[in-house]
Amino acid sequence: MSENTQSSGGKGLAAGKIGVLGAVVVGVSCIAPAYTLTSGLGPTISEVGTHVPGILLLGFLPMLLIAFGYRELNNRVPDSGTSFTWATKAFNPWIGWMGGWGLIAATIIVLSNLAAVAVDFFYLLLSQIFDNPDIADLTNNLWINIPTTLVLITVAAWIAFRGVESTKNLQYWLVGFQLIVLTGFAVAALVQGRNGTSFDPTDVELSWFNPFDMDSFSVIAAGVSLSIFMFWGWDATLTMNEETKDPKRTAGRASTIVVLIIMAVYALCAVGVIAWAGTGDQGLGAGNPDNQESIFAALADPVLGKWGILMSLAILSSSFASLQSTMISPSRTMLAMGYYKALPASFAKIDPRFRTPSVATMASAVAAGAFYTITRLISENALWDTITALGLMICFYYGITAVACVWYFRHEMFDSLRNAVFMFLFPLIGGVVLLVMFFYTAVDSLDPDYGSGSSIGGVGMVFILGMGVLALGVVCMLWVRAKQPAFFRGETLAHSHSGNEGAQPRDATTVGTVPGDRPDPPDRPVDELTITSIKN
Questions:
Q1: What is the pLDDT of residue 4?
Q2: Do 91 and 504 touch, CB atoms closer than 8 A?
């Protein structure tokens, strides 16, 4: 079997297309720093005040520790199914299926939100270009907003469908631009704050970087939950592992680099905003509720002057870039689930020209569009509460994957100091922190005041939506179990009894091939590989 066929697991994806730099760019794009900061920085400041840099560090640490666990799993079992595949092999098909569902559900929800933010800033940018504030108000008209959102989702899906190389080439420009604008904004804000020419000049102090200088654990937990959402998305690099130049190393290295880059950008921008605007709740203060929805929309022009339009363009490009690159993650996960017969076989179809998941990409786009349309028609509060509920699903599937790393390597984790640190200690700490955060946030979200204030029967809407999405996953899993029991019997993706088993390539029976399957010869064309994988 050829190296490329091995690395693609026989799924038919185009191998060897992405290097470390390309994977890093796509990973940064998925996190969408400009979009994430403008929507997440304000609420975080309102919760923890000047301690935002410290809270970001606190949220960054479990992400970094989990990234090491992801790297170890990817080195051993490079598979586009990531959380789904690894949790299945470590534990059982049931936990693995729910891990995959958590990833898919979270990314579908955030896809709809990314498109919504892109539409808001699209009309804001047009209003700035034509100096007509009425154009910005068009986003509030649902019969304009919803169709525009669906068009953006369609365009993003089309680019993703054309392959990771098209995605990578577009992202170089979009990611580079937003990082330059964010850095310029932060530097300008720091300089003006130091010169005393800002709205509320605030001296930078080392105590800002100490999250334990705060009195309330609830405030710390709320801040960490927000910061976890702000770091989420780096694992998209790992769903492309079968398409990288070195499946066992490229994606793992890229994910770690992405987390480090994002931490640096976030800390710089957070310090800049606080130094310029302070944390007050009046005027341009960063704690003003009127500035919470988009902190950069409020501060861009005052800080950058005539160049403020660049921030609108950066957030628009950030939202669209992330919308397009994030489409990769659920489509590759659904591809793997279809390939291993954990979803209908149609999800395993690969386009013979672009070698991308055709049905899975289409399904991701349709689901995101339908979710946005339904929630926006119900109420805007329902849409924003689902974004808050994202934290539950993120903690859920990240936590499961990190603990899966510990269990998967249990027979070799103490063979060396390196193994003890990267296979046991780091993922265990990261996984436990996020699972604790999952349960803690679930309890807190029972309160209607958590989120928009909406409730049903006295139960907070965030809890209902978060747990409701996970409960829907259980229903779908039971339906698939009734229709396609082979996966749940361990016949298509076997549970590993030893961490060493994963070291074999896809054609070895220990990785979970269907009993009796033969390895595909290296010279078989992609469409024949795809047809064979669906029929088997």
A1: 35
A2: no
Q: Rounded distance, CA 337 to CA 370, Å?
A: 22
In whole angstroms, how far apart are CA 341 and each of 192, 344, 359, 514, 517? 58, 6, 15, 10, 14
Closest CA to 218 of 388, 60, 55, 64: 55
> Do 90 and 384 meet the contact criterion of CB atoms below 8 Å apart?
no
Q: Find tokens 């890093």 and name the residue.
A: 24
Q: What is the pLDDT of residue 277?
A: 95
pLDDT tens digits for 479-492? 999 999 999 999 99
Element spanning 103, H or E:
helix 93-129
Summarised one tens digit per residue, pLDDT across range 15-41 is 777 888 888 888 888 888 998 888 788
User: What's the rounded Cα separation, in Å, for the pair 421 and 532?
Assistant: 41
The token pair that represents 474 in the structure block: 């259980």
Closest CA to 357 of 27, 104, 149, 102: 104
**How confident is residue 72, by pLDDT bands cut at 50, 70 and 90?**
very high
Strands (E) in 426-535, as ranges, are 455-456, 459-460
Write out the DSSP string of 118-156.
HHHHHHHHHHHHTT-HHHHGGGG-HHHHHHHHHHHHHHH
What confidence tens digit (pLDDT) does each residue in 194-209 have? 999 999 999 999 999 9
| DSSP element (H, E) containing 408 | helix 380-408
- Domains in the chain, ordered, with CATH? 3-535 (1.20.1740.10)
Residue 334: name the closest of 359, 353, 368 by CA: 359
Q: What share of residues in the chain are helix, strand, coil (percent, to 5)?
A: 75, 0, 25
Tokens of 132: 């007509």
Rounded to the nearest 5°, which phi and psi values hold at 456? -130, 120
230 CB-side CA count, 13 A = 35
Phi/psi at 451 (5° precision): 105, -140
Indicate whether 169 pLDDT > 80: no
- Whole-model pTM: value is 0.81
